[in-house]
Amino acid sequence: MASTNVYGDIARQIAGPSAHVTSILSDPNADPHLFEARTSNGLAVARAKVVIANGLGYGAPFTAATLQVGSIGLTNVTMSINKAPMSTSLLGMAFFNRMKSFRVEGDRLYIRPR
Hey, where are the domains in the chain? Predict the structure, then answer.
């Protein structure tokens, strides 16, 4: 699940031909700033195995002194604390940019730390 067709295209390139990728905003001429989410969009995101999104939202900037994801530990990680509750954890690009690589195979995310 991707927020826009641009991120959907990136997801397809990363995940490969076996992945099913859906973009909420698939019209390249649509203005994402005018988008109003529907219940069906929230349900689709909640059911997605992987979600790719970008943009400014209602969140407070924060720097975590430490962040542990499985066996990967990082220090001084920038993040946003969302105003609205989320049903799942979301790893952002501030985390992934500090990795050597990452890939999605089927329903699994593989991360290689530096």
Answer: 1-55, 57-114
